[in-house]
Design brief:
Length: about 500
């Protein structure tokens, strides 16, 4: 199954053309734009056709002449702009077009279909099952309509009847098109997992296109998902066996309440999700067509967050972790009973953490990581304090060169053990560390030792992480990962 994303944006696109917020501005300056979400399956089945979709196909160099089935989720104008039906009738010699969707959406299409036109409208309700036949071929698509959780009590009939689509392609690949929905009730999840005309449960989806409209805005009160509810939605599907480790999960219907793409990518990665650009082509092989893969969590992600003092690194790392339902916060700060200012800093850190986070105070980071579970997120804050504790324990501030040399070697061995523990950890890991190598050269040998070791440890951690972000003046700067491994000489003081 080949899926062309003719749009990946929310109703107003992203950026919103009238908005100058930080997210819209960043995307606009980067030359990026997302239009109404729509998916073209194998060039023959189209899901949703908003006002931007026909022109998006043209930009992709695709004609829609072979499309003979259109699945409409609901009648909101970003999902259905029925003028395309008239345009199609202006072209002679095409096969009959079948348009499927909820009753109110089909009613919107009626005035655009001329008498005798080769267009047939079909009303669908939740749990209807249909077979889409293709002319001049034996290929068929099997589709099941699933009730969406899009209505939000405001009397919007178009939202109340919205549908999701479970589609099986001729090659066996299975797609869940799940945009414009909130979290699903238990009975819907159970039904998604149930078989359709078979004695065994349905295989897991090979591709899930899932709503992520509201990003960091959690108080929208609509039938959409945000970065706080999306993990719960996906976890429900994983627990039901509908999402497996082989499933490709792609966020769609993205709007400007999400952070810019460079910031969004690592947040989504922690959920086992990715984003693609408009006109991207997704190849979804039927990995699960013949057997039901084991249920599982998304692959764990590793993210290093660097920054200077008061750069916002801890706050940013906490924001990354907040999308996880289960967070283990590992604090490496040593108690300072006689330092009131330090105690106030620690109190502020504790007060802003969600109450359900589990806090562990330790310098034994490999042990803390070993105790984490799949699906959890471990947030380590911070490596600078961890390094200080290990140097203190080895009397590294000594004037004896041999003592300092041994301490340095032992600390680097501890760093290697930490990196191995990160690699073996089944949970996602977010690591906060200080950047102290951009200032003047320290005046003391001990200061230079700390600076050099922290730089070496940071470089090793960055190589072990898929994502790295530098915080500067409260703003995140994603660091590219080009696969280059610095020469061994860079580990020398």
């Amino acid at each position: 199954m080949h899926v062309t994303m003719l749009g990946t944006g929310a109703a107003d696109g992203w950026p919103n053309p009238f908005c100058a917020c930080a997210s819209c501005s960043a995307e606009r300056q980067a030359g990026r734009s997302r239009a109404s979400t729509s998916a073209l399956i194998d060039g023959r089945v189209l899901i949703d056709c908003g006002p931007t979709v026909p022109h998006a196909a043209t930009r992709a160099g695709i004609d829609l002449a072979a499309v003979c089935h259109v699945l409409v989720t609901h009648g909101h104008p970003d999902h259905l702009a029925p003028a395309f039906l008239l345009w199609r009738q202006w072209v002679d010699g095409l096969a009959d077009l079948h348009v499927w969707g909820p009753p109110a959406a089909m009613a919107l299409c009626q005035e655009w279909v001329a008498p005798g036109a080769p267009v047939t409208l079909h009303e669908l309700s939740g749990w209807d099952v249909l077979t889409l036949e293709l002319p001049s071929t034996d290929d068929t698509y099997r589709v099941r309509a699933i009730p969406a959780a899009h209505g939000h009590g405001n009397g919007d009939a178009l939202a109340e009847e919205a549908l999701l689509y479970d589609l099986r392609a001729p090659d066996g690949a299975r797609l869940l098109y799940a945009t414009d929905t909130g979290c699903l009730p238990a009975q819907t999840l159970d039904a998604i997992d149930s078989s359709i005309g078979n004695s065994s449960p349905e295989p897991a989806f090979d591709l899930v296109l899932v709503d992520a409209t509201f990003g960091l805005k959690a108080d929208h009160g609509t039938g959409h998902l945000d970065l706080a509810t999306l993990p719960a939605f996906l976890d429900d599907l994983r627990q039901a066996g509908s999402i497996a480790p082989t499933t490709d999960v792609v966020a769609v219907h993205l709007g400007h309440h999400n952070p810019p793409r460079e910031e969004l990518a690592p947040i989504l990665a922690g959920m086992g999700v990715r984003a693609v650009d408009d006109l991207a082509v997704i190849d979804a092989p039927a990995q699960s067509a013949h057997s039901r893969p084991a249920r599982g969590q998304p692959a764990p992600a590793r993210h290093l967050v660097l920054g200077g003092a008061r750069s916002g690194k801890s706050t940013y790392a906490e924001r990354l972790a907040a999308v996880s339902a289960s967070v283990r916060y590992v604090a490496t700060a040593a108690p300072r009973p006689d330092d009131a200012e330090w105690a106030e800093r620690v109190r502020q850190h504790r007060d802003r953490r969600p109450a359900h986070w589990h806090t562990v105070e330790t310098f034994d980071l490999p042990a803390a990581l070993a105790g984490a579970a799949a699906g959890e997120t471990v947030l380590i804050d911070c490596i600078g304090m961890w390094l200080t504790a290990h140097l203190d324990a080895r009397d590294a501030w000594s004037d004896d060169p041999d003592t300092v040399r041994r301490a340095r070697e032992q600390v680097l061995d501890c760093a290697d053990e930490l990196i191995e523990a990160i690699a073996d950890c089944p949970a996602s890991v977010i690591i906060v560390s200080n950047e102290v190598g951009m200032d003047v050269v320290p005046a003391t040998a001990s200061g230079r030792l700390f600076r050099d070791l922290l730089g070496i440890v940071n470089a090793r951690l960055a190589r072990a992480c898929e994502h790295a972000t530098m915080m500067i003046a409260g703003r995140p700067l994603p660091l590219p990962r080009d696969g280059h491994r610095p020469p061994a000489g860079c580990d020398l003081p």
